UniProtKB/TrEMBL annotation:
It comes from Candidatus Cryptobacteroides merdavium. NCBIfam families: apsK, PRK03846.1. Residues 28-178 form the APS kinase domain. PANTHER family: SULFATE ADENYLYLTRANSFERASE. One of its GO terms (biological process) is sulfate assimilation via adenylyl sulfate reduction. Belongs to the APS kinase family. This is Adenylyl-sulfate kinase. The active site is at residue 110.
């Protein structure tokens, strides 16, 4: 069988550098990775952060679980192998954005620490900021916007994180936020305090 890699000739040495792209944009690339249970507030915070950064003239892109799974990862299911491959592909795409100087915001349950470690390795640890949305499962179930917890409790959804599949919280996240009893604005202001100094080129 032909070795496909023998026919690949990367041209990275002739491309514009990341530094050149960042200077052109006037900002630094960064990966902001939200992790937490379904219903914890990840997507809400990711979208609010996008709006706040955009309002400050910072180019950013949100990668959200449902959108990714309906597009680039539409062929993946929810087995352990597929969940890992889902995160691997997301990390590879995110690295391209970060290398462009774009602030990239990911909102994924990413339940296993090893998955998030893999993502950090692919993207680059110095560019990877993990934000743990630590909202309790009781609060997430109370919200249950999509009715997923109720279905999981009835056994209609297998391997549902927090009910029939485990969630491994981060050991040392860059930031932990419990959205219960907090406004979106209060939570986003905490995140901005972390992110803005890292993406500013001044």
């Amino acid at each position: 069988m032909e070795n496909i890699k023998e026919n690949i000739y990367p041209v990275f040495d002739r491309m514009m550098t990341r530094k050149e792209k960042e200077e052109m944009l006037g900002q630094r690339g960064l990966m902001v990775w939200f992790t937490g249970l379904s219903g914890s507030g990840k997507s809400t915070l990711a979208l609010a952060l996008e709006h706040e950064l955009s309002a400050r003239g910072i180019l950013c892109k949100v990668l959200d679980g449902d959108n990714i799974r309906s597009g680039i990862n539409s062929n993946l299911g929810f087995s352990a192998e597929d969940r890992r491959e889902n995160i691997r592909r997301i990390a590879e795409v995110a690295r391209l954005f970060v290398d462009l100087g774009v602030v990239t915001i990911a909102s994924f349950i990413s339940p296993e620490r090893s998955m998030r470690e893999m993502a950090a390795e692919i993207i680059g640890r110095e560019d990877f900021k993990e934000i743990y949305v630590s909202t309790s499962i009781a609060e997430c179930e109370r919200r249950d916007v999509k009715g997923l917890y109720a279905r999981a409790r009835r056994g209609e959804i297998k391997d549902f994180t927090g009910v029939s599949a485990p969630y491994e919280p981060p050991v040392a996240p860059a930031l932990a936020i419990d959205t219960a009893g907090k406004t979106v604005e209060e939570s986003v202001n905490e995140i901005l305090s972390l992110v803005l100094p890292l993406v500013s080129s001044h």
